[in-house]
Model the fold of this input.
Amino acid sequence: MRFITLLFGMGLFCLSSFPASVTAEEVTLEEISAEEVAPEEVTFEEISAEESAVVSSEPLLDRMARFFNTPDDVPHAGLLGKSYFQSLAKEQEGDDPYLSTFDNLWHGYDTFVNLPIDSPHTSYHLAADFFVGYANASINNSEPDYVEDTFGGTYIYHYVRDLNARTQAFTAGVTVYSDRGGRFRPFVQVGAKFTHSQMVSTGGGLYFSRNGYVFDNAINNLEHTYNNHELRALLNAGFEYDINSVLAYRMSLMTETKGRFGDSLLTQDLILWPVNRFFLRFGAAIDLDAEQSITSVGGGFAF
Done:
C-alpha cells in the first residue's frame, strides 16, 4: 500500500512538473531566437556603416573613373568605332557682309561615311576610323525693287537684285579615339578639306531723281561674282559621352586652320538610337566669335 501511494505521489509530481518543463523550453526558444536575430540586425547595420565609410573615403579620382567608365562588354551609344552612313539637313546663317544684305540663310545637306580601320582594345587603348564626307549648301534670293526717299526731295530707285551662291566641300581623314570601353571617349580628327565656292549677284541698279528730273549718273546692272577653290588641313578634337544606353552627347571643336581661329566652329550633337542600327542626330554649332550659326537634323544607319 505504501508502495502504491509512493508511485501515485511520484506520478503527481511528474504531472505537476511537466508544464513547468514546457514553459522552460518555450522561454529557451524565445531567448535563442532573440539571440539569433539580434546579432544579424546588428551585423547588417555594421556592414552598411562600413560600406558607407568605404564609399565616402574613396579617392576623388577613383570615383571619377568609376563615373566615366562602364564595363568593356557594354556597347556604347556613340558613333566612334562603328561602320555607318548618315545624312543631315542643315541651315546656316553666314557672316558675309554683302550676303547679309539679303535673307542670309544657307540651306543644304551633308553625307558622311565612317569605317573602322583598327581593331579595338589594342595595347595602347587606341583605335582609328576612316571617314569621307560631302557637304552642299546654297542660297538663292531676290530683293524686290523699292524707292528710298531722302531729304530734300531726292528719290533713290533701287532695282531688283538676284543672288545665287553655292558652296561644296569634300572631306577625308582619320579619327583616333580611346577604346577603353568607358562612356567617355575623347577623339582627334586629322585630314583634308577641299572647298569650292561660287556666287553670282545681278541686278540692283539704282538711279536718283529730284523734282521729277533723273540724274545722268544712274548706276545700272550691278554685278558681283565670286569663284574660289580652296584646300586646307582638317583638325578637330572632341569627345562622346553616353547619357544612357541609347542616347549619346557629342561635342567637337572644328578648328579653322587657314583663316582666323575665331572662325572655328564649336559643335554639339545628340545621337539617339530608337531602334537597333538606326539613329537620329540633332546638332547645333556656333563659331567662337558668335558670328555664324548652324543647325542640323537627320539620321543614318550602322552596318
User: Anything to note?
Assistant: The CA atoms of residues 273 and 279 lie 4 Å apart. DSSP finds two helices and 14 strands in the chain. Residues 1-8, 10-27, 67-74 have pLDDT under 50 and may be disordered.
